[in-house]
Amino acid sequence: RGIVEKRVAGLRVTGQQSLGVVEAVLCASVNKALVRGLCALGVSAVGVSGEDGPTLVAHTAPPIDGESLGFVGEIVHVQPTLVEVLLSYEFFPVVAPLGVAEDGSTAYNINGDTAAGALAGALGADAFVAVTDVPKIRRNVADPATAVDRIARSEIETWRAQGLLAGGMLPKVDGALEALRRGAKRAIIAGAGPRAVRRALAGEGTEITP
Length: 210
Prior knowledge:
It is a single chain. The chain is of the alpha/beta class. The protein contains six helices and twelve strands. It is globular.
């Protein structure tokens, strides 16, 4: 669409023009492609948005380092009833990461890891798994030998202060912490590929501990 992308701390700045594109792409083409793929595998998938229900209630996220994120949302409340109902009937929910203001007046673009973490916590999930392009969190992103199997919240804050966590890893780590804070039993960041979730649950990723 000719819209220049800008990111701050790994989060995509979302203006009025790009919000409509984000909503159309995430709720329609991407969501339905995932639903079709899952259905092709025999999974009874259903595509919904965090706006439905509403499931994810949000307000405008605060600026980062003085820069506004536009229509990026910060989740203030998760209402998992819609997802719980779908699960109770053995449907597999595919939730587009958008939220809505409490009065329904504004849609918000919510980072996918943040949305997933908040929803996993509200559901009391057995595990939150963030799949990314590196198998584990690394102290030095360029050096696979610095990967860690486990990391505590206190260590994460130290790494953050030292600038060791950056870019897209930041929202994944924050999503994991949000999942634990809201009630998920485990939080893991792991690499992509065949059986990624199964491998993560078996210990191949980095587990984040409270």
